[in-house]
Amino acid sequence: MRPLDSLPPTEALEIENGLKLVPRMKLTLTINPATPSATKPIDEWQLKRALTDFLKTSLSVPITVPEEDLEIRRFRDLKKRKRDDPVAHGNLFIRDFEFLHKTRRKNADEETDVNVLEKQLSDWKKYIVEKMDGIELNLEGVKYKLSVAIPISDDFEKMRKDWEEFYAFGNRGYSRGKQEPDTIVIKGVPSRWFAEPRVSSKPSMLVTHTVFSTFGKIRNLNVAEDDDPGKDADEDGGDIISGLHCKIVVQFEKYREFYNTLKVLCGRSLQKQGSQLKADYEVTWDKDGFFWDSRNQAEEKSNRMPLKTARQYRSETSRHEVYSSQLAADHSRRKRFKE
Length: 339
Fold this sequence. Notes:
Layout: E1 13-14, E2 19-23, E3 25-33, H1 44-57, E4 70-74, E5 88-94, H2 98-106, H3 114-132, E6 136-139, E7 142-149, H4 156-169, E8 183-190, H5 205-212, E9 218-225, E10 245-252, H6 255-265, E11 268-272, E12 278-279, E13 282-285, H7 290-338
Antiparallel strand pairs: 1-2, 2-11, 3-5, 3-7, 4-5, 6-7, 8-10, 8-13, 9-10, 11-12
């Protein structure tokens, strides 16, 4: 596998177990009625058509988005929504970055290293957001306002600034002097892609370790089924089927391995050899001390045990002493009475 720090942001990366990381741009979409009092259900098909037409005709480079890469989810009960609540939201995925390669060929005399490509892609993402954010869509006489943003899980520079600020000002002392993150959290990958074939459909620790050890030396690893509905609980789109997705938490030995891995995972989707499905996972860094908490709970428990035993012993001794003194007092009273 090629060095991670030399991988251009628009190129795919093949990893272990027939898996491949493919580049993407993810935008979150929020749709509000232009008139807050509107309660008419939004037509998803018309909304999708209006957005795809905009991408084809209103940008400097026409973009064609397949239907499966534009997700729109309506909120279930519009009558219960508050005045300023959206009527729907969704995600837009752009996966074709050929136009950037064409730009590179036109400017062959320019330096086209990884940093230059990252800057070009970042500028283009900002351009797309600026063009789409705030536009009005007229659907059957009802006007809607579109809000567009790049989620933080797809913005590596924003995450990097977040952890720098966190360790500088707000780590609450839990890290005991640690000034750099080392743990990545990934949600929304298919469990079966990390399972042992013909053994189980549940994610395997062994398979997961094999996949992520290609990025660097692993200190700790946790993988478990992830059925948390999150925001989807209030949306149309069917019930969540248990066990389909998993959550992976991986802690690396070195900060540099954590850094390069998170940077490569950010802005990419996972694809399995022989499958057309793309897993549009979410990735972030662990600010809650996932492994630190579990390790320290065990340590604190073991440290408290002798203290508890000592206190229990002292308490029992004290009770025994009180009981003995009472017996002695009663015996002396009975003795005086007999005399």
